[in-house]
Design brief:
alpha/beta; Alpha-Beta Plaits; 2 domains; six-stranded parallel β-sheet; four-stranded antiparallel β-sheet; 9 helices; 10 strands; 35% helix
Length: 223
């Protein structure tokens, strides 16, 4: 694994979790907060921890934020602080700036001033909980971009004995099948014969370009 330098600005629960996780995977983390207690909690785990104001350009430069491959601005309740932190990180040449936002308005502003990625943990976690409650066949979803996801799902009973050509899943669900995991076969198959019939208990990995497939599964229409 290539070691990277990552700045984590703001050490609430969200920021501390990111700092701990990145450090666990042997990344060099610079952890900053204006509260000494929060900084002390991560000090033994990260490469550098410092107490200071993340809206202070000189402070950020002094602790080495200009050397970071990416920065996470993990304080999302104060828009002014987040805006200043994003602006300073851009000025310091940080290539990837990820910012936490409290709501959609904050999200729009942070994107507008140059954040690479804006996340809203409360909204995203709420969506994840709802999705987990509704899933019928979907086992895992990895969201690659806003409207693009990789989905792993178990095939419905009605698919057994039919092939991809017959099912026409690309047209019906707007998905592209990229892998199959057949029962009692350890390896994922990526060379797929569209004329080969599905066996019972087959898992499928597909790329979905919108949430059509998810809706079919959640509403019980995937049969």
């Amino acid at each position: 694994m290539t070691k990277k330098i990552v700045g984590v600005l703001g050490l609430g629960i969200f920021g501390r979790t990111i700092a701990f996780e990145l450090s666990h995977f042997d990344q060099d983390v610079i952890a900053l907060d204006n509260g000494a207690a929060h900084v002390q909690e991560v000090a033994d785990y990260v490469a550098k921890a410092a107490v200071g104001d993340i809206t202070d350009f000189d402070f950020l430069k002094a602790v080495g934020i200009d050397q970071c491959d990416s920065v996470v601005i993990a304080t999302g309740n104060n828009l002014e602080s987040s805006v200043l932190a994003v602006m300073h990180c851009k000025k310091l040449g940080v290539p990837i700036i990820i910012a936490k936002a409290k709501n959609a308005t904050y999200e729009e502003v942070l994107y507008g001033i140059g954040a690479t990625k804006v996340i809203t943990p409360e909204r995203d976690s709420g969506k994840a909980v709802a999705a987990n409650m509704l899933r019928r066949h979907i086992e895992n979803i990895i969201h690659l971009e806003d409207n693009l996801a990789m989905i792993e799902f178990s095939i419905p009973e009605s698919w057994v004995g039919k092939n991809l050509t017959q099912l026409d899943v690309r047209k019906k669900y707007d998905i592209n099948v990229v892998g199959l995991r057949r029962p009692n076969v350890a390896n994922l198959e990526t060379h797929i014969d569209p004329m080969q019939a599905f066996e019972p208990e087959t898992d499928v990995i597909a790329i979905a370009s919108n949430n059509t497939f998810e809706k079919f599964d959640y509403l019980g229409y995937l049969k």
